[in-house]
């Protein structure tokens, strides 16, 4: 069976819909190995709702939350990028341990790049893509991001859980910012 994912922007939901979605997020299970790399899903989404530069999303499949992720503006250096503003930071990304192995992480990463491009246009931003850092001992994460079109940009030593790889995905041409926008390095 072919899986699909949708990103549900938590900041855009009405209070009732947001409460339902946060209830689903509270039920997500983080695997033992995942705990080294990511925090509590509900806490990450609540923090994202409070911070203006963060855009928290529920990753939905078949009508229910199967994961979470956050896009953040002005924070790309947290993933080893040379500046904060030329790209979006993808952070706090996880898929429920019971839903792993179905390709949902790759689909959600692709959707996150599309959503970041949409946000760039909507906010008249100049970002040219999405950056993230992934732990070197997280082979599933590395593989999912590569499959989603992210390229390895080298080591990053700033992660809390050990050595990371900085990975970048440029917006497709149709989603690129207007000509004259700064080019990421």
Give an overview of the whole structure.
β6 and β7 form a beta hairpin. The protein has a seven-stranded mixed beta sheet with strand order 1-2-3-4-5-7-6, sandwiched between helices. The protein is globular, with a radius of gyration of 15 Å. The protein contains four helices and seven strands; from the N terminus they run βααβββαβαββ. The longest helix is centred in the middle third of the chain and has 19 residues. By secondary structure, it is α+β, with helices and mostly antiparallel strands. The chain starts with 5 loop residues before the first strand and ends in a 15-residue tail after the last strand. About 5% of the residues have low confidence. Helices cover about 25% and strands about 25% of the residues.
Pick out its properties.
185 residues, 7-stranded mixed sheet, 4 helices, 7 strands, 26% strand
Architecture blueprint of SSEs:
Layout: E1 6-9, H1 15-26, H2 41-50, E2 54-61, E3 64-72, E4 88-95, H3 104-122, E5 129-135, H4 139-147, E6 151-156, E7 164-170
Parallel strand pairs: 4-5
Antiparallel strand pairs: 1-2, 2-3, 3-4, 5-7, 6-7
Q: Which structural class do the helices and strands define?
A: alpha+beta
Q: Which radius of gyration do the C-alpha atoms yield?
A: 15 Å
The fraction of residues assigned to DSSP E strands is 25-35%
Q: How do the SSEs run, as a string of H and E? A: EHHEEEHEHEE
Number of helices in the DSSP assignment: 4
**Using DSSP, what is the number of strands?**
7
Query: Helix share of residues?
Result: 25-40%
Low-confidence runs: 175-181
Shape: globular
Describe the sheet with the most strands: 7 strands, mixed
Oligomer: single chain
Termini gap: 40 Å
């Amino acid at each position: 069976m072919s899986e699909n994912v949708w990103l549900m922007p938590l900041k855009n939901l009405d209070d009732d819909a947001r409460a339902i979605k946060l209830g689903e997020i509270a039920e997500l299970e983080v695997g033992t190995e995942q705990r080294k790399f990511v925090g509590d899903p509900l806490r990450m989404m609540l923090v994202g709702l409070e911070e203006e530069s963060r855009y928290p999303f529920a990753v939905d499949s078949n009508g229910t939350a199967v994961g979470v992720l956050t896009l953040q503006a002005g924070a790309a250096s947290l993933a080893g990028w040379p500046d904060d503003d030329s790209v979006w930071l993808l952070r706090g990304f996880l898929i429920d341990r019971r839903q792993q192995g179905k390709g949902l992480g790759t689909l959600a990463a692709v959707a996150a790049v599309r959503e970041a491009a949409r946000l760039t246009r909507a906010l008249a931003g100049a970002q040219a893509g999405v950056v993230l850092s992934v732990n070197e001992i997280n082979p599933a994460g590395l593989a999912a991001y590569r499959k989603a079109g992210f390229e390895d940009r080298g080591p990053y030593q700033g992660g809390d859980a050990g050595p990371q790889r900085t990975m970048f995905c440029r917006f497709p041409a149709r989603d690129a910012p207007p000509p004259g926008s700064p080019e990421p390095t």
